[in-house]
Design goal:
It is a single chain. The protein is α/β, with parallel strands linked by helices. Helix 8 links the parallel strand 7 and strand 8. The chain starts with 7 loop residues before the first strand and ends with a helix. About 5% of the residues have low confidence.
């Protein structure tokens, strides 16, 4: 199969607000005239991927996110207010505060930009979440895409589990933060975008409890991804925007996180060009 004929599978990883860095990567596909054959997403990667699979361009999604930052009562503000505000809210008298927010209500801020069902998507989409009592991931490809997105983004510290099929589901990143094996296309090119990040700070500083908990989950997800990279299925291209300086709950840092993704555009164009030379040239 020639480079011009090879389909492209795209995997968008989880990372909370760090997932905004996915958007400039989607702009590369638009600029090169390449339409992914399939998109697999986790958490914020599932949300961004769903908007793109529904027919929104990368530029449209970026414009929407830029606008959200400036609008009162928008998604970014909702997510920022959703964060655990203090350790005492997680471990003190206000125990009901943490993990009781409803992910579905946050998705309402996207309005018609997000589809209702998988069947109406222009690009096939696969979303991963974690079956809490089943100890395994659940892969969603049909039915309610909003329900699947809500489950995939249900970070235990912030959102309550989402009931699907009578079973509670939580953040897909717990078991599969970068679901590239679900974006494999026979004879195609596999592109994965990793926005997991990781804890950063002065080595001599003891992290606060909430910081340690979220940082620990990032380390866990990095370890899972590293082990997956040793397996038989590996991406042809892995893009890692420099987002570690941000935190997964930094939803007000939209512009800066988008800029981190923007810095990776030329690298992705170069690497895709090497694998899809005739197709990219014509695009």
């Amino acid at each position: 199969m020639s480079g011009a004929d090879r389909p492209v599978g795209l995997a968008l990883g989880g990372g909370g607000a760090l997932g905004f860095a996915h958007v400039p990567i989607l702009e590369v596909f638009d600029e090169l005239g390449i339409r992914p054959a399939v998109i697999a997403g986790c958490s914020m990667g599932a949300i961004i991927g769903a908007a793109y699979a529904a027919g929104r361009s990368g530029r449209e999604i970026a414009g929407f996110l830029h606008g959200l930052r400036r609008q009162r009562g928008d998604l970014v503000q909702r997510l920022w207010r959703s964060r655990p505000r203090a350790v005492r809210e997680l471990f003190g008298p206000m125990r009901a505060t943490a993990g009781q927010l409803v992910a579905e209500t946050v998705l309402e801020a996207f309005g018609e930009r997000l589809p209702q069902t998988f069947e109406e998507l222009a690009i096939p989409l696969r979303i991963v979440a974690t079956d809490f009592y089943g100890w395994h991931e659940t892969l969603f490809t049909t039915g309610s895409v909003r329900e699947a997105m809500a489950a995939s983004m249900a970070l235990p510290l912030v959102f309550r589990p989402v009931m699907i099929g009578g079973r509670p589901h939580i953040d897909g990143g717990i078991l599969n933060p970068l679901p590239f094996e679900h974006a494999v296309v026979e004879g195609g090119v596999l592109v994965a975008v990793d926005v997991i990040g990781g804890p950063m700070g002065r080595p001599g500083r003891v992290p606060r409890r909430i910081e340690a908990m979220i940082g620990s989950s990032q380390l866990m997800m990095r370890a899972i991804t590293a082990e997956k990279m040793k397996g038989p299925i590996r991406p042809d291209i892995v893009i890692e925007p420099e987002v570690a300086r941000f935190r997964p709950l930094d939803f007000r840092q939209v512009d800066a996180i988008l800029a981190a993704g923007e810095a990776q555009k030329d690298e992705l164009k170069r690497r895709l060009g090497a694998l899809l030379a005739p197709r990219v040239a014509s695009g």
